[in-house]
Automatic annotation (TrEMBL):
<protein>
    <recommendedName>
        <fullName>3-hexulose-6-phosphate synthase</fullName>
        <ecNumber>4.1.2.43</ecNumber>
    </recommendedName>
</protein>
<comment type="similarity">
    <text>Belongs to the HPS/KGPDC family. HPS subfamily.</text>
</comment>
<dbReference type="GO" id="GO:0043801">
    <property type="term" value="F:hexulose-6-phosphate synthase activity"/>
</dbReference>
<dbReference type="InterPro" id="IPR011060">
    <property type="entry name" value="RibuloseP-bd_barrel"/>
</dbReference>
<dbReference type="GO" id="GO:0033982">
    <property type="term" value="F:3-dehydro-L-gulonate-6-phosphate decarboxylase activity"/>
</dbReference>
<dbReference type="GO" id="GO:0006207">
    <property type="term" value="P:'de novo' pyrimidine nucleobase biosynthetic process"/>
</dbReference>
<keyword id="KW-0456">Lyase</keyword>
<dbReference type="GO" id="GO:0019647">
    <property type="term" value="P:formaldehyde assimilation via ribulose monophosphate cycle"/>
</dbReference>
<dbReference type="GO" id="GO:0004590">
    <property type="term" value="F:orotidine-5'-phosphate decarboxylase activity"/>
</dbReference>
<dbReference type="InterPro" id="IPR013785">
    <property type="entry name" value="Aldolase_TIM"/>
</dbReference>
<comment type="pathway">
    <text>One-carbon metabolism; formaldehyde assimilation via RuMP pathway; D-fructose 6-phosphate from D-ribulose 5-phosphate and formaldehyde: step 1/2.</text>
</comment>
<keyword id="KW-0119">Carbohydrate metabolism</keyword>
<feature type="domain" description="Orotidine 5'-phosphate decarboxylase">
    <location>
        <begin position="5"/>
        <end position="206"/>
    </location>
</feature>
<dbReference type="InterPro" id="IPR041710">
    <property type="entry name" value="HPS/KGPDC"/>
</dbReference>
<dbReference type="InterPro" id="IPR001754">
    <property type="entry name" value="OMPdeCOase_dom"/>
</dbReference>
<dbReference type="Pfam" id="PF00215">
    <property type="entry name" value="OMPdecase"/>
</dbReference>
<dbReference type="InterPro" id="IPR017553">
    <property type="entry name" value="3-hexulose-6-phosphate_synth"/>
</dbReference>
């Protein structure tokens, strides 16, 4: 099995805390995600800072774009994003716009299936348009209401779409093996790392568990 990637969700609003957290966990993660609240608060300057600091890491900007796809995402790809996210619920025109912006910068697009009613159909159509990553995502509010991403991950993995599948939504050490075995190629972890007494130690543990599960 190919080694799944670990994506660190940087969900603080504070610019300096975000950069400091990235520095702590960098040895153990493959992708830095600038989370949606964080990118809204800090904008392209944070993309540029992390790009300059970590030229060799993948950088995902969790825009969750809902409209004006090409226009909104273009600025973030230009600032150094490798991947931007667009909401599946935005519709195919917006998704196509983000994909167009990504192609212009030799970058990638992730569809976020959060709150999409027919996730299989949305994933299929998005992949046809050229999206490279399908994101299964139980957001923070849905998590607080007791939801998890595991059922959706199994359903989407079974489709065999031939693109990478990302999973997000409360992933922690106890659930890493389950999501790797279900076919996730990108494991997103936020609170389980940034909320731990030692984020670096928590990230190291996740790295070991992901690598062990993928053998
Ligand atoms: O995308 C996220 C959320 O919607 C806020 O933007 C989180 O980054 C994602 O859910 C991962 O964080 P955890 O669920 O805390 O692991």
């Amino acid at each position: 099995m190919a080694r799944p990637l670990i994506q660190m969700a940087l969900d603080s609003l504070d610019f300096d805390q975000t950069v400091a957290l990235a520095d702590q966990v960098a040895p153990y993660v493959d992708i830095f995600e600038i989370g949606t609240p964080c990118i809204k608060y800090n904008g392209v300057n944070l993309v540029k800072e992390l790009r300059n600091r970590y030229p060799d890491k993948l950088l995902l900007v969790d825009l969750k774009t809902m409209d004006a796809g090409e226009y909104e995402a273009g600025a973030f790809y230009a600032a150094g994003a490798d991947i931007c996210t667009v909401l599946g619920v935005s519709g195919l025109a917006t998704i196509a716009g983000v994909i167009k912006a990504a192609k212009a910068h030799a970058a990638e697009t992730q569809i976020d299936l959060i709150n999409v009613a027919d996730k299989a159909e949305c994933a299929r159509e998005s992949v046809k348009l050229g999206a490279q990553i399908v994101g299964i995502h139980t957001g923070l509010d849905a998590q607080a209401a007791g939801q998890t991403p595991f059922g959706d991950l199994n359903d989407i993995a079974r489709l065999g779409l031939g693109v990478r599948i990302s999973v997000a939504g409360g992933i922690k050490p106890a659930t890493v093996q389950q999501v790797v075995e279900a076919g996730a190629n990108i494991i997103v972890v936020g609170a389980a790392i940034y909320g731990a007494p030692s984020p670096a130690e928590a990230a190291r543990e996740i790295r070991e568990l992901v690598d062990a599960a993928a053998v």
